[in-house]
Structure formats: C-alpha cells, structure tokens
Amino acid sequence: MATRENQLGEFLRSSRGRLEPSAAGLPGDLTARRVTGLRREEVAVLSGVSADYYTRLEQGRERNPSAQVVTALARALRLTPDARDHLHRLAGLLPGLSDVAPTRVHPSLSQLVDAFPRAAAYVLGPAFDVLATNRIADGLLFPFGDERNMPRILFTHPAARTVFVEWPLVAGATVHALRLNAGRFPSDPGISALVAELSAASAEFRELWADHTVAGLTRAYKVFVHPGVGRVELTYQTFDVTDAPGQQLLVGTAESLASQDAIDRLAAMAHA
Fold first, then answer.
1. Out of 3.30.450.180, 1.10.340.30, 3.40.630.30, 3.90.550.10, which CATH number does the structure's domain 107-271 have?
2. What is the separation of C-alpha 247 from the centre of its chain, rounded to a whole number of angstroms?
3. pLDDT under 50: residue ranges of the chain
4. What is the pTM of this model?
C-alpha cells in the first residue's frame, strides 16, 4: 500500500504506467518497449517540465508543484475529471471536503430513501458503510447478514462472489471510488482503518488499491443472484448529498420486467 508521504509520486507513476503511448499522441515505432505505459522523460516532455523535475516529483523529493504544472501533468496523462481533481488534492492544491464526513443520515434523507417503493435505495457514507436503506435494498443485502460495509462484504464475505455475478467489475469500481474518497477525506478514520483491514485480509484488495485508479460512483449496471428471488438486474444512479459531504444516495431501478418482479417480491417479503 502506498504511503501517505509520497502518494503524489505513487499516483503519477501508476497513471503513466496505464497510459498507452499511442493514446498520448507519441509517434514512431513503440513495439520495442520493455515496459508498458509512458517513460518519465515522455511525461516530462508532454507536460513541459524537465525530466529531472518530473523524476523528483515521482520520487517524493519535490512536493510543491504549482497549479500550472499539475494541470499540465493531468493533461499529459489524459486524466479523467475525478483523477484530475485527485491529483490536485494530492499536490495540496485542492482541499479535502472535510476532515471527517458525517456518519448520521439526516431525517429528511431517510424519508427520501423510503420514497422509492419499487427501487432499491440506500445511503452510503465515505467508507461505503450503508447508513440507510429502504425495504428493497435491505432485502438485497439480506445474504450478508449484519455486515453493512460494502468493501468488507465484497472482499471478505463468502457469499459475495455468488450474489454479485460480475464481482470483478463491482469490486474494482468500489475500490476506485474508495481511493477517491480517501483523497477527499484524508483525515477520515473510517476510511484509513478499512483500507488497513482489507489490505491485510485480501490480496485482491491490495492489488486494486496499489493501482491508484480513482473514479467516482456514477451510473452503473449490477446483476445480483439473490437466494430468495433469483436474478436481479438493476441500473444504479448515484446522487451526492450536498448538505452531508461524503454521503451518497444510490437508487437502483429494474432493467427488465423479470427484475421488477423480483424486487417487488423482495418488497412483499419485507412486508410479510
């Protein structure tokens, strides 16, 4: 796991390693390369800094790049908006949203969750603890018992790979979003404790965390195989909660009539 002392350098190194030279607009025959991604010298040229300066950034010997340099690096590395903001935060140019995000759900948000009678709705905290659910979401989580932290479910619960049909996609997206939140809430003890716990418990988590990819939770398609109602296909939409930074409302709607029937049966089971 990367140390906080050189997270900027770790992120730069990982980002250039993922970028294909052709995607960066580099010409010529690149088939003789021994490693994937861009070389340090190439990132330096593309971003308009010296190779020595860029090397010092990666090695942690330079820790205070200007906003202009960080913007140029983000452009050279073809970073997504989430990754670009993450880079600026690591460079100390964009503050975290809060020292510690709120962990209690506002009563009005709890009422909103219950306003989706035919969809799975729940609220996540910054470490992806499930803070509130409606009946359908609670039914979907039933196979995991009392556990209500999504990364812990995915990487330690024995039922996770059965329930989540596309486990690698869900697990990867969750870790990428957790890494983004770690940059947004650098002092949040829940995130740091969870990362330490899962890094010790799961080699797959360690590998995904070390990749340094960041991406927020957005629109996503998920497939569940629930022991009570069978296959459920949902499209999730994620909404940030503006008056509770770090909390997100997720709403999953059925992708088919069969899936709608399944979640209706989940709702009926909850009423029984």
1. 3.30.450.180
2. 13
3. 1-3
4. 0.89
